[in-house]
């Protein structure tokens, strides 16, 4: 096994309404919240939705070497309708940001964990809804980074 290559990674939590984005440090140790994007469901089928265009701009701005997208696997480990939608989103993102790779990773319970951590810090209600997607993206990316370090 090789050591995790240096470079910023972006973590993405794809929701029906919003897309949470986190970024790692160049050494792949720590994930931090970056931004929440509005999901664009109005783009024509042959056009790039604004959230994908914004993600592509973030990839370029942060010189990301990889994008890690949370795959909502159900508790039984199966891929339901949400996983199919996220896979299609990740495939479309990969087309937009090529040659930067897009990796899917199990995000089971990431939003629940993120909501719980925010509540423990006193962030509730509207304030929590505004940042829970970013916090879920942090959980997704941090779990992936930790797993990669354990492998090396």
TrEMBL record:
Keywords assigned: Cytoplasm, Hydrolase, Nuclease, Ribosome biogenesis
Enzyme Commission number(s) of this protein: 3.1.-.-
Statement: the UniProt record of this protein carries the keyword Disulfide bond: no
Predominant subcellular localization, coarse grouping: cytoplasm
A Gene Ontology BP annotation from the UniProt entry: rRNA 5'-end processing
Locations listed in the record: Cytoplasm
Pfam families: RuvX
Keyword Transcription included in the entry's annotation: no
EC primary class: hydrolase
Stored InterPro entries: RNaseH-like_sf, YqgF, YqgF/RNaseH-like_dom, YqgF/RNaseH-like_dom_sf
Domain of life: Bacteria
Domain (YqgF/RNase H-like) ranges: 7-114
GO molecular function: hydrolase activity, acting on ester bonds; nuclease activity
Gene3D superfamilies to which the protein is assigned, alphabetical: YqgF/RNase H-like domain
A GO cellular-component term linked to this record: cytosol
Family note: Belongs to the YqgF HJR family.
Record function comment: Could be a nuclease involved in processing of the 5'-end of pre-16S rRNA.
Protein name: Putative pre-16S rRNA nuclease
């Amino acid at each position: 096994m090789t050591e995790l290559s240096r470079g910023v990674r972006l973590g993405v939590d794809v929701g029906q309404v919003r897309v949470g984005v986190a970024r790692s440090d160049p050494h792949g140790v720590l994930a931090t919240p970056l931004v929440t994007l509005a999901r664009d469901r109005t783009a024509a089928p042959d056009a790039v939705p604004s959230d994908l265009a914004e993600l592509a701009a973030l990839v370029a701005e942060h010189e990301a070497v990889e994008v890690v997208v949370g795959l909502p696997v159900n508790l039984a480990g199966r891929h339901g309708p949400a996983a199919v939608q996220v896979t299609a989103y990740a495939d479309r993102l990969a087309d937009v940001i090529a040659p930067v790779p897009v990796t899917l990773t199990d995000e089971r319970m990431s939003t629940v964990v993120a909501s719980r951590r925010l509540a423990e810090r006193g962030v509730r209600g509207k304030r929590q809804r505004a940042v829970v997607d970013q916090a879920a993206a942090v959980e997704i990316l941090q779990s992936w980074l930790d797993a990669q370090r354990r492998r090396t």
